[in-house]
């Protein structure tokens, strides 16, 4: 990908901004994800199981097996097998719905939250490391730009996993 640099006299086009944003996010996320996923290789958790944990964390509430399957784009049978494995590992809890005993609700256990938070903490540490390497003026410019975007009405909704962690830290 070739990233063009608009001159100081012209505003960056949507396409130029898109290109540099994709390049930036790709590099940042790849670095953070590689380190964060290293911890998964030493566990019995597959990527499918980990996706299940992340969906449950992101929703912040117990889901029925059907709801969970829809969110994961898996069949009810495949979702049930994922849940069985995660229950066996002590990472999720499966209970009857209080209003309809035919429905099973799945939620993270404390240990499940610990696994998800360890993964997110690893990513956040990589982000902190990146920000810490920036010169002060560039860091301030990045803060100003991102703060304006986050506090404005430019994003349709926040990432549910990070929103979950924010609420968790505040409580």
Taken together, the total number of domains comes to 1
- Specify Rg, calculated over alpha carbons: 20 Å
| DSSP strand content | 5-15%
Q: Supply the helix-strand structural class.
A: mainly alpha
CATH class: Mainly Alpha
Give the quaternary arrangement of the chains. single chain
CATH-assigned homologous superfamily: Winged helix-like DNA-binding domain superfamily/Winged helix DNA-binding domain
With strands numbered from the N-terminus, the spatial order across the biggest sheet is 1-3-2
- Overall average residue pLDDT: 85
Spatial shape = elongated
The SSE string, one letter per element, is HHEHHEEHHH
CATH topology-level fold name: Arc Repressor Mutant, subunit A
By DSSP (H or I, 4+ residues per run), the number of helices equals 7
Cα distance, first to last residue?
A: 43 Å
Poorly predicted parts: none
CATH architecture: Orthogonal Bundle
Describe the sheet with the most strands.
3 strands, antiparallel
Query: Which bin fits the share of residues in helices?
Result: 55-70%
Strand tally is 3
Pfam families: MarR_2
Protein name: MarR family transcriptional regulator
GO molecular function: DNA binding; DNA-binding transcription factor activity
Keywords: DNA-binding, Transcription, Transcription regulation
């Amino acid at each position: 990908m070739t990233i063009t640099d608009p001159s100081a006299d012209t505003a960056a086009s949507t396409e130029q901004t898109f290109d540099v944003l994709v390049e930036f996010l790709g590099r940042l996320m790849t670095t953070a994800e590689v380190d964060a996923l290293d911890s998964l290789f030493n566990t019995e958790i597959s990527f499918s199981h980990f996706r299940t944990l992340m969906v449950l964390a992101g929703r912040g509430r117990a889901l029925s097996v059907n709801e969970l399957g829809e969110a994961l784009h898996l069949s009810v049978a495949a979702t049930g097998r994922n849940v069985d494995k995660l229950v066996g590992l002590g990472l999720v809890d499966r209970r009857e719905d209080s209003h309809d005993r035919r429905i099973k609700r799945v939620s993270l256990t404390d240990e499940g939250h610990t696994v998800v938070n360890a993964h997110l903490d690893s990513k956040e540490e990589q982000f902190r490391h990146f920000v810490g390497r920036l010169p002060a003026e560039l860091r301030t410019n990045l803060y100003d730009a991102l703060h304006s975007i986050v506090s404005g009405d430019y994003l349709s909704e926040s990432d549910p996993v990070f929103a979950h962690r924010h609420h968790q830290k505040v409580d």
